[in-house]
Amino acid sequence: xxxxSGGCACGKVxxxxxxxxxxxxxxxxxxxQHASGAAxxxxxxxxxxxxxxxxxxxxxxYDVQAExxxxxxxxxxxxxxxxxxxxxxxxxxxVLLAVGGLDDQSMFQPTHEVWVSRAEAWHPFLPDTIxxxxxxxxxxxxxxxxxxxxxxxx
Length: 154
Ligand SMILES: [Zn+2]
Ligand SMILES: [Zn+2]
Known about the structure:
Helices cover 12% and strands 38% of the residues. By secondary structure, the chain is mainly β. It has one domain (4-153): glutathione-dependent formaldehyde- activating enzyme (gfa), CATH 3.90.1590.10.
């Protein structure tokens, strides 16, 4: 049984993940607003080698320059255009899943909201998240990812 499963609106892209997410956050940056078509992006970071795609169409890839200056490669279903996931080409081991595609979105439990300085006034924040004015600090993303991958090697 996969821990996570999801896909696109037309069903031609499906995925299953056998690991629970390492990081869960909401990002209010301009780029995530464009990519999600909404006020923010809800994202789960999962290990790429625990994620299996079943793709009956082409994925469409699009590179963006994140606020951090790093390149983020986003993909969407080539048929229906649903956002699926993203990854950093310079860090292939991690995939950022778009939570809107999950079969069970109630699994999403974000700990942080980042780039709240870019958030729209008409969109409320969650009461229990830690809010950061700018991008994720090391303790939000880098440290948990490093801890996860080093624990797997042990
Ligand atoms: Zn689709
Ligand atoms: Zn963002």
